[in-house]
Amino acid sequence: MSEKWTQLLRDYKLFLLIAIGVAALIVTIFFIGQTGQSEELASVAAVAPSSEQLEEGVPPSQSTEILVVDVKGAVTKPGLYQLAVGSRIQDAIVAAGGLTEAADSKSINLAQKVSDEGIVYVATKEEAVSIVPKQAGGDKETRAGLVRLNTATEADLQTISGIGAKRAADIIAYRETNGRFQSVDDLKNVPGIGGKSLENIRPYVTVD
């Protein structure tokens, strides 16, 4: 009888040990699963935009490209302006506060696209020329009515504000003596034309 009880006790202990082992294994598997879920949630939370960012309208990444344009001439607020890629002269003028009363709206193409590092020059009604955006890197520039330094007559040159008969004659004389103008900056070599005069003349001439 005592041997039976001893055997039963041994069997019970063995069963108990097996049950404890199985329970420990289940607990371990459950704990590992919970840890993996926590790490995954933490990773997702790290890359997702916060609700505060979304409420303030701050995008999770800044992918919008911009370009910078120099708006000059007969606009309310001349200066440098940042515009979205694909913007047009109309957008640049609006950013600069619009045209002044003296602006010659017929001399500009409002539908033309602007480019990075470009210039938008709005002429007044008294001026005969308007410069539209210059492409970055020396690409083509759309010019309307610019005076060509290498072919202009004295009469042509005198249509530019600040150039009278004597200065026009000096420019022609320089060209005949030294050959073609290689750049607008060559005007500094003409007697009587300094840095300030050159900047006043530059928007209205070309060597093309």
Automatic annotation (TrEMBL):
InterPro entries reported for this sequence: Competence_ComEA_HhH, Endo/Exo/Phosphatase_dom_1, Hlx-hairpin-Hlx_DNA-bd_motif, RuvA_2-like, Soluble_ligand-bd
Domain Helix-hairpin-helix DNA-binding motif class: 155-174, 185-204
Pfam family, one: SLBB
Biological process, per Gene Ontology: DNA repair; protein secretion by the type II secretion system
GO cellular component annotations of the record: type II protein secretion system complex
Gene3D superfamilies reported for this sequence: AF1531-like domain
Any GO MF annotation of the entry: DNA binding
Residue intervals passing through the bilayer: 12-33
Protein name (database record): DNA uptake protein and related DNA-binding proteins
